[in-house]
Input
Amino acid sequence: MVAIATKEIEPENPFPVLDYISPEYFCDRKNETEKIISAFKNGRYITLISIRRLGKTILLKHVLNKLQKDKDNRILFIDIMPTECLKDFVKVFSDAIIKDERSNRGFLEKISVFVAGIRGKLVFNDLSGIPSVEVSIADEKEAEMSINKIFEYLAAQKSKYIIAFDEFQQIVNYPEKNTEAILRTAIQHQHKDSFIFSGSSKDILMSMFSDYSKPFYQSSDIMELKRIDPKVYTSHIFKHFKKRGKIIDKNLISHYIDFYKNHTYYVQYFFNRLFEYSREEVTEKEARLVEYLILKEREYIYFGYRNLLTSVQFSVMTAIAKEGGVEQINSGSFLNKYKLSQPSSVTAAVNALIDKQMIYYEDNKYQLYDVYLEKWLKETF
Ligand SMILES: Nc1ncnc2c1ncn2[C@@H]1O[C@H](COP(=O)(O)OP(=O)(O)O)[C@@H](O)[C@H]1O
Ligand SMILES: [Mg+2]
Output
């Protein structure tokens, strides 16, 4: 779990890549922010969906950071990604509550009662002294009881909670098959609090929230996060170079936004490195060198993919990279061009690559997630 920034920090580099810092370093997303806040105010939940590394988590934190300014709101940010079962879910949820309570008076007493209620034990980190919960849950029934206890606890508080579940689709991988129903029922009774769900698996989330037979059916508005408007991103980047006394050509910025397919993380990371590397006047030569260094540093990992993937998978991935995206994966011309002889094995490879989250399907095209990997494959093979 990562803290939501409360005070404004001035970073050395104006293009943060690891976490949310403050509105100053967050680009745009004005409409999305307004829409999410308005949904909250009007008693609706939101499900935020996009491919990985486009900016969901950061947007969530930006929204929560704004909502946090209202002292009546209490914010829980819960990352579901590392959880594997309901027991883990109970732990991350409880830890978020403890973290939120920590600065309040009478914290220990209050939280001890809460922890006992969910059959947990409060443990303190040796070094930091930060408390967290150790949960001992034997079966699904006990897990359900603990979850209900958590929600009862929230309901008993006067404040309004805003609860964000990041990478929420992870719950469908739990061995407990009733998880969706258990959570849906608990959330449904939580009238005073708001929920936001977010995740990178479009198919799973779409099915969870828009499939008639599923517990979460139509329980929230679905928002598909798109790429940042390249013009707005260009101005944002330009402004921050200028603020730190560096001059950069706007055309150079838009070239690289386009070059990295406007995939936020890859663009942001590039400009973080270019900012670090350049002097007062940013040159094309410096940009090209940074571009090269980024690939060079990753080469070791990228070569490793040859061992992690089957040879057909690697060939298909390389072919998609070289094309910069492919519409018809089984078309004769594509298969011939890359000497992929068996359409059925290509289909199997594509499915495996999607499963491994190496490629995704969007805008009628199969594309690589990792834009740097795409560039590297194009150049190397
Ligand atoms: N609006 C934004 N302004 C600045 N940087 C952003 C923005 N959105 C995303 N980023 C950058 O992209 C990275 C990936 O975003 P993240 O929210 O973690 O993606 P997701 O949750 O969709 O996988 C962030 O760490 C940040 O560096
Ligand atoms: Mg995320």
